[in-house]
Structures are given as C-alpha cells and as structure tokens.
Amino acid sequence: MVNSYIIAPETAGMTRRDDGLPADDRIALDALSVFSKKWHPVVVLTLSRYGPLGFNDLLEELPEISSKVLSDTLDGVRDVGLVERRVVSDSPLRVEYELTDAGADVIPIFDSLGDWGTRHLESESPTVLLADSDRRLAELYGDWLADRYSVVRAHTGDELERSLDEGVDVVFVDDGLPGVDLEATLNVVGSLSRTILVVGDRPAVELLERSCDDVLQKPVVRETILEAVETQLRRQGESADQRARAALAAKLSFLESVYPRERLATSDTYRRGRDRLAEFEA
Length: 282
Prior knowledge:
Blueprint lengths: L22 H11 L5 H12 L4 H7 L5 H13 L3 E8 L2 E7 L1 H5 L1 H14 L6 E5 L3 H11 L4 E5 L2 H7 L6 E5 L7 H11 L1 E6 L14 E4 L4 H14 L4 H19 L2 H4 L3 H14 L1
Parallel strand pairs: 3-4, 3-5, 5-6, 6-7
Antiparallel strand pairs: 1-2
Helix pairs in contact: 2-4, 11-13
C-alpha cells in the first residue's frame, strides 16, 4: 500500500505563487486541488463506504458514470496515491480497487465537510422526529439536537402519525411507544424517512426482521444521538439495496455488541442474517 505521497506543484492544479500565503496554506490548497475533478471524491467515498470493489461493482454503485470516465478517474486517483489496484485472480483476470492509507486518511475530512455542509449549506435544517413516551428523555434528546436540526416530538402513536410527513428526515422510534403496532409503524415510517429504533432492554434476535436503519440502546449519550443522525443523513439518496445492506449490517453489529457470538450462532435468524449480508457483499 502507498502510505504517503507528495503532490508536485506542477501537477497539483494550483501553482505555488508568491501570494503571501503561508506555506501550510499553499499545501492545503494543493491538497484540495486533488479533489477538484467531479468524480475523484465520489470514487474515494464510494470505496470508503463499500470497498474494495471491482470495476463493474463501481459502475453499479455509480450508475451516472460511464466506463471511460470511471477508467480515467481510477487512473487519476491511483496517480496521486489515494487508490490502489489489486489483482485478485490471474485466470480469469479479476482486479479490485481499494483505498490506500493516504486515501483512508482523507475520509475524516469528508465527514467534517459533511457536518459543515449540513450546518451551513442546507437552505433548511433537516428535521428529526423523536417518538418516545418518556417526555423527559424526548426533551433531553431534543435539546442535544436543536442547535443543528429542526426537532419534532411525539409521545404516542397518534402523535407520531400526525407528525409524519415528507419533511421529516430522521425518526427515532422508542420500542415502548404506546398505542402502536411496532412493526407496522416501522414499515410506514421507513417508507417516508430514515428510521432509528431505540430499545430499552436487550432485544430478541428477531430484531433483524424489524424495518429500521439502525438501533440504539438506552441510555443514549449525546455523541451517539448526533452520530446516528449524521450517518442517516449522509445515507439519504442511496439505492434500496444499499440501504438494506447498511441496515442489516447495523442490526447485526448491534446484536453482536450485546450478545456473545457463540449464543448468536445458535440462532437460525442470526445465521440467515449473516448469510444475507454475505450475499450483499459478494
């Protein structure tokens, strides 16, 4: 793997001129120029979220890009050391592309840019709906989110139903919300918004069959709430298969954090979930 690289001034896309800027600022501008081409950052982020990927896999993930443009883009990001090409098999020839250490190092920068864009570029703040019968908790969660998002609260099934509309981006649903058929509610909410199920006790393995994008367990801290919302907002616009894969991975990861692997391995539901995730990733 390529661990580091130096962007030469003549290839950086911005000339180093005597503009009075400190050297560190000029280096930052040179680094930004690496991502000035439309598809360079898209390919890097795609490989970060779903890689390593083969050429055709990338085409499938990026339906708007042509084969020629993808080939040129891969050459470009390889030239600057962000991506490497790895031969998986010689006969038949099969290759995969994955991020180098240098490529992986830029992902936190993209995450920070996403947070910045959410706060400063959106014409309207995303809306988060908190559906929890515990008014104290709903108020607390709302206070944590209010400086970044528009917050709506619901404490019963009827209030949740009245609050749902296409303007809601992320919905937290407490599994103990009174007056609801939880699975039916999650199906409806999930068709309109990104959905996070909040559970009090350790749920059964059948959680894998719930229609939600992520799962949190009480007690929840501020950083966890914010990260969960930001993750779901970043995933808006992904395909149905991408959403299903991410949701299944999140639910499996949650179960593995609260149950021993050997206990989960005895569950047919868990094994089916693991097999399905392997199919997604094949």
